[in-house]
Structures are given as structure tokens and as C-alpha cells.
């Protein structure tokens, strides 16, 4: 099927924009995980428990407000943050457990 040249150019421009946004999103997730590693080192050095349920609640409520304020499905952001939080808890466990295993 032959495509519309101008339409395809416009689509490629939009896809290029999406690719830049995706790269920024991934960089932001990486930086968030790196920050959590720093937090885990602090927790380890100061004998702070890894799991901080009240902090998870704060993060989830902030995401819910963001969803409401920006017309994003709050269930989507809750599920996304469930994944992000699970991964950062896993990473913190690794960092905190690294010394405990020695």
C-alpha cells in the first residue's frame, strides 16, 4: 500500500518526538533508581529499616493527585508506581543486604 509522503514525514516527526520523550522517561527512571541506591546506603549506615510503608503511601498519594490534576487514569499511575516501587525496594534490599551478608 502506497503511503502519503507528507503524512509519513509528519508521522516520523511525531515518532521522533515520542522517542525523545521515551529516552527522557528512561533516564528519569534510572536517576530515580540511583537515588534509591543512595537512600539504601544511608539506611544501611544508620540502621533504618528498608521498608517505609508511610513513605510508599506518600508517593502513591502524590501520583494520584498528579493523575487527577493532569487527566491521567489514576489506576494506571497506581499500577505504574507499584512496579517502580517494587523495583526500587528490590534494589534497596540488595544494597542493604550486601553488608549484612559479609
Automatic annotation (TrEMBL):
Highest taxon of the lineage: Bacteria
Protein name: Chorismate mutase family protein
InterPro entries named in the record: Chorismate_II_sf, Chorismate_mutase-related, CM_dom_sf, CM_II_prokaryot, Isochorismate_pyruvate-lyase
KW Isomerase (keyword) present: yes
GO molecular function, one term: chorismate mutase activity
UniProtKB keywords: Isomerase
Source lineage: Bacteria, Bacillati, Actinomycetota, Actinomycetes, Streptosporangiales
GO biological process: one example: salicylic acid biosynthetic process
UniProt domain Chorismate mutase: residue ranges: 5-96
PROSITE patterns to which the protein is assigned, alphabetical: CHORISMATE_MUT_2
Keyword Isomerase: yes
Amino acid at each position: 500500500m502506497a503511503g502519503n509522503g507528507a503524512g509519513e514525514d509528519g508521522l516520523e516527526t511525531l515518532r521522533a518526538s515520542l522517542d525523545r520523550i521515551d529516552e527522557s522517561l528512561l533516564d528519569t527512571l534510572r536517576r530515580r533508581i540511583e537515588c534509591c541506591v543512595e537512600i539504601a546506603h544511608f539506611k544501611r549506615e544508620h540502621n533504618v529499616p528498608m521498608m517505609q510503608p508511610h513513605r510508599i503511601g506518600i508517593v502513591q498519594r502524590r501520583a494520584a493527585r498528579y493523575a487527577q490534576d493532569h487527566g491521567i487514569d489514576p489506576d494506571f499511575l497506581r499500577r505504574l508506581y507499584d512496579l517502580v516501587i517494587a523495583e526500587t525496594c528490590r534494589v534497596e534490599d540488595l544494597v542493604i543486604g550486601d553488608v549484612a551478608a559479609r
